[in-house]
Design brief:
The complex is a heterodimer of chains A (113) and B (113). Chain A is mainly beta and 113 residues long. In chain A, 0% of the residues lie in helices and 53% in strands. Chain B starts with a strand and ends with a strand. The chains are: A mainly beta (113), B mainly beta (113). At the A-B interface, strand 4, strand 5, strand 9 and strand 10 of A face strand 4, strand 5, strand 9 and strand 10 of B.
Chain lengths: 113, 113
């Protein structure tokens, strides 16, 4: 039973355009959400996070939106660059529990020049 | 300040042998997490440890798998009598306690032949 779902295994976007990666979750106890980026043969690296008390967090070209009622979050990358091509994992945790992150299966983003 | 160090990067074992995966957390981090990524899958939580204690091992198979994080030295994930289905990338992460401080290592790719 997947608690964090990324329903699009892949996404292809033209350089300069917006990339939108989506994530849905089922556990209403989740109150902290993160996005990680992963290149082949490397470990995931932290990108951006959002607490459930917010609905938006922005860091440069990256913005994460949280819709608690829909149990949905999205990562927007604008403008997209070829170096953004990677697998993006959505993760969530229940801050009141042990703190281990639950990950989605990832979305492979390809940004074409 | 080195990041999370995992070794070996690649490990090949024959069926029935033992695999030992090592993880040295970021200096000062006392929380260690092990994740497994099977081909075409996301990151699956296995176990969460603090120094000398297993906090949550709900994601770890009950048999053949064990983990430790001794007072001195790295965390060890041990897989006894490996089978082909154990072939995966195993990632270790460490934190000082906050999810946003989760730092991943580059992983150990285990291949069982």
């Amino acid at each position: 039973d997947q608690q964090v779902k990324q329903n699009s295994p892949s996404l292809s976007v033209q350089e300069g355009r917006i990339s939108i990666l989506n994530c849905d979750y089922t556990n209403s106890m989740f109150d902290y959400f993160l996005w990680y980026k992963k290149y082949p043969a490397e470990g995931p690296t932290f990108l951006i996070s959002i607490s459930s008390i917010k609905d938006k967090n922005e860091d440069g070209r990256f913005t994460v939106f949280l819709n608690k009622s829909a149990k949905h979050l999205s990562l927007h990358i604008v403008p997209s660059q070829p170096g953004d091509s990677a697998v993006y994992f959505c993760a969530a945790c229940d801050g009141g529990s042990q703190g281990n992150l639950i990950f989605g299966k990832g979305t492979k983003l390809s940004v074409k020049p | 300040n080195a990041g999370v160090m995992q070794n070996p990067r690649h490990l090949v074992r024959r069926r029935g042998q033992e695999a030992r995966l090592r993880c040295s957390p970021v200096k000062g981090h006392s929380h260690v997490y092990w994740y497994r990524q099977l081909p075409e899958e996301g990151l699956k939580f296995m176990v969460y440890l603090q120094k000398e204690n297993i906090i949550d091992e709900s994601g770890m198979p009950k048999e053949r798998f064990s983990a430790e994080f001794p007072k001195e030295g790295p965390s060890i994930l041990r897989i006894q009598q490996v089978v082909r289905g154990d072939s995966a990338a195993y990632f270790c992460a460490s934190s000082a306690g906050a999810p946003s401080g989760y730092t991943f290592g580059s992983g150990t790719r285990l291949t069982v032949v």
